[in-house]
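Reopening closed ticket. The problem is back. First fold of the pair:
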Amino acid sequence: MRKETKAAADAVASHIIDLLGCVVRKKIDQTFEELESALADNSIRKNVMKCARCKLRVTGILNSEHCPNGCGPLHAVTWKDECLAAEAQIEKMAGEERSKQ
């Protein structure tokens, strides 16, 4: 492939990725706003606990209120916490994808 053709293809691909990123970001923001308003009471996520110190997440029926790593107590995870964690993970993955290009 000629250099000019490859450069043009790369520019088009980059533009498409930017457009998709904007669409995805808009949808994420919209979904997050909907969830945030629906969960304004900070509802607890059933059977999900997290250690405040090591950030270990434990799911399912728990026999103990203490972190399996011995760090300290486990705390209930709210749906808002889940949404914020998911958003951070998506942002991290998107950043890694952009840096590969």
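Second fold of the pair, where the issue appears:
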Amino acid sequence: MLTAAANLDVDAGLALLCTAPDADDLAHLGKWISKAKKEAGTDRPQITLGVSALSETDSGGAFTVTAKGQGQIADRQGEVKVTVAKDGEKYCVEDVTVVDYSVRTSD
């Protein structure tokens, strides 16, 4: 999942989902990626990702992903909570909730 996020690879990310998102959600994601590329001045914005708050249950689990922009988007940061569900013998992403998206004024 982190590789898909770091590479802004929507198709790889979609393959990890339990249920495909609707057209509106996909359009919103496409706009967000286009905006990030434009603000970064490159098709490969540099983003530092981190994972924390891992939890596990018999039926799945959850974790938090933090993202911090580098270079021209160094003032951008975000955090999402990812909920994972067990689907047979494998796990899939059941939900992604934006916890924070903000513009940092300083580190």
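Update: turned out to be a display glitch only; the data is intact. Residues 41 and 72 are 7 Å apart (CA to CA). The mean pLDDT is 83. Please close again.
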